[in-house]
């Protein structure tokens, strides 16, 4: 039975969404096309009707995951964003968490298109953190440097925290220490900046 164009688009979207979650949970190499299609509730043969290769899907799923996470953080002020990013909940929700924290190590070994999707997501995240630094009183040059440093610390803290067993006191300590230090670094004389919007 021939499927409609609308059903084909729905199937493609389901594949991308499923892949985005599974890649964050297991890594790019930890998910086969067959496993992915089973998880999406579709047949293995249907994959190549939508994508030329697994790398094509990896690029699209990466971009979707990055955009989804940015949208989730869009309306948070600086302090809320940092608190949510460096939370135990975010640490534990690998499949729905930050694509950069889950897959940056894998991205370094992937085709240029996947790396380009990561570079775009990193640039967007840095721009958002930079706006928070400027709201805290830093000039533009200093804000950019501070954004790179602070986001690198945030990303590294989440990665290190996830590398520890979930019930490890060290895992929680890494998040707590980095969250406090980053918030302190962004606090202007008048208090936490509230103007950060994406």
TrEMBL record:
One GO MF term on file is: DNA binding
Residues annotated as DNA-binding region?
32-51
**Domain (HTH tetR-type): residue spans on this chain:** 9-69
Q: Which UniProt key words apply to this protein?
A: DNA-binding, Repressor, Transcription, Transcription regulation
Which Pfam family is an annotated match for this chain, by its short name? TetR_N
InterPro entries reported for this sequence? DNA-bd_HTH_TetR-type_CS, Homeodomain-like_sf, HTH_TetR, Tet_transcr_reg_TetR-rel_C_sf, YxaF_TetR_C
Q: Does the keyword Transcription regulation apply?
A: yes
UniProt-recorded name of the protein: TetR family transcriptional regulator
Q: Whose protein is this, by species?
A: Hylemonella gracilis ATCC 19624
């Amino acid at each position: 039975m021939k499927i409609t164009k609308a059903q084909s688009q729905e199937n493609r979207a389901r594949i991308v969404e499923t892949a985005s979650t599974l890649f964050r949970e297991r890594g790019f190499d930890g998910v086969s096309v067959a496993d992915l299609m089973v998880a999406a509730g579709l047949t293995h043969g249907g994959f190549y009707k939508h994508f030329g290769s697994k790398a094509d899907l990896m690029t699209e799923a990466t971009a979707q995951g990055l955009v989804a996470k940015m949208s989730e953080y869009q309306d948070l002020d600086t302090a809320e964003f940092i608190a949510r990013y460096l939370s135990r909940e975010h640490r534990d929700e690998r499949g729905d968490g930050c694509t950069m924290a889950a897959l940056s190590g894998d991205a370094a070994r992937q085709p240029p298109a996947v790396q380009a999707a990561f570079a775009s997501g990193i640039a967007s995240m840095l721009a958002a953190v930079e706006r928070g630094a400027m709201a805290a009183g830093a000039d533009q040059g200093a804000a950019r440097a501070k954004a790179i440093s602070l986001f690198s610390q945030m990303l590294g803290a989440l990665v290190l925290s996830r590398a520890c067993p979930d019930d490890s006191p060290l895992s929680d300590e890494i998040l707590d220490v980095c969250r406090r230090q980053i918030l302190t670094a962004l606090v202007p004389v008048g208090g936490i900046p509230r103007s950060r919007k994406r």
